[in-house]
Amino acid sequence: MQEYTCLSTKVKSNSLLPFFNLTPHLDLNNPIFINNPKNIPLPTSSISPSIVDHTINNLKASLLWKYYFLDETEDTNPTTRYNPNFKLLPRPNVTPFPCRLLKHIDPELQLSFGALRRNINQTFSSYPPIKRKSNNPIKHLLAQHPDTFLTLADKNLGFVALPKSLYIEISLAHLHNEDTYLNQHSTIHEITTNSKQAFKDFIDANEQFLHPNELKFLRKQSDLPANLPAFKSMPKLHKTGPLKSRPIITAFNWYTRPIALVLNERLRQYTQDLPYTINSSKALLSRLPDYLLPNQTLVTIDVKAMYPSINRAELFSVINNLQDGNPLINHLLSFILNNSYCHFLDQTYLQIQGIPMGDNSSVDLANLFCNARIDPSIAQHHLISKYYRYIDDIFIIWNGSSQELHQALAAWNTLSSLTLELTQYSHISVDFLDVTLNLDPITHKIHSSIYFKPISKFNYLSPSSCHPPHVLRGWILAEINRHYELTSHPTTRDCNLQVFKEHLLTRGYTHSFLNSLLSKARALYINPPTAPNPNSKILHCILPYYPDIISLEIANHIKEFLKTTALEYFPGHRPLIAYSKLPNLASCISKLS
User: What is the pTM of this model?
Assistant: First the structure.
């Protein structure tokens, strides 16, 4: 029901490349919209038998994985109880439940899926599907531009189209840096086999140091399918000068992932109360003074290429000071660093410097490194009244001159392997994370508001997108709530919300729909709801969402199945159906890349 139009936009100054706005729009000539203007679920279905089968496979895999791990939550002893944060459940639409593990599943539960499948197939057969011509706008677009590559831009700026040769060039600029990456000249199969054996050897060698729940978790992960991480680049459109990119290595199904989960849990006790680390712009605003003195200045600093720049010897020195005689954290970190492999094109690489981007423990490792090497020295400088850091972004209230700041910056760059760059120095306004901080020129009072990047195109999710209704409501409510939390002046907040509403109206939302959400968000801000019980047990079931009658009947069959059959095997759980979105632009690009 959607097509994507590639609209060339104005080239950013001092940037060599245009970027594209992939805007979804309705095909008004489609008879579905002519005969059904209110988008009511149709009596006929576009769901094919393969989609129905995929739905049942999703549900079956989800429940079988849940049942497989069910015994780990029965222990009520807090010293031996299984940590729920270690549950690395594979996504059922990516990793089906292996046949070799079916021996652990109750036979009656396995047979119950057959009856559910027959009921759904019977319902499906009563609604003949609409035959439609296959339309993949991404394939069509790339067919017209065979030398073009589509990928996600950095900083959540949408998608960028660039020549394949340029994408390869900016990616190899990272991988050919021999100080950071080493070409392995090995096949994916060889590296996977060696890493799997190293993973098993690690478990055996550290059994005496691992907690029982950690050991149980790691042993169950050793037989799960693994995929060597792929190296990807995210072009930095917001940066001036020659095009650069942010390296991304997704290690979701790799052996470093469960190790990183355990390491992250071990590091949690050391990172909860770091004095200079903040986890959001909201945390920053809560710590700022209401007013600045006339001689004070707002300053922001960026840590250049933070993760690859962390010196491993210095990092191990920091970690060794935390361990209290237990070498496990050191061993966990060593395994991650020694197995941070990736592949690009037909080559395999090992990261030999810094820490990997994307692992669960990377943020905590970076925070501990900075807390030990740079934070205290900078924060205690005699010309600094406030110092806070969000990973690689630093905020300072400075009491000196610009010349004194540059002198101090040069000294701070000698504290560690990290390089600090001054990004903003202002007596008026600075942008930090997702907020803009403005100083009143007369009273010097600090005012905050939402920050929007100059090249933001505000292509919000279209209401015609094939998402469940609660998704369309939920993200808008979350964005409105962000305005309430981060904007200090009510007039500014109301003006920004009106602009936000205008953007949504342009995207196709209605006044009545948006007004109801604005009223609801205002009520929730005045009377916040109570937080949900974190210990509640939920039985998640995942199925694709389609806006037609047959998908609603499939959901009803599954709800009945959960209430009558599934809850017999999962006592004390609350059933919840979670809709998975259909393949979108991002997933299409990921598959094609």
Answer: 0.75
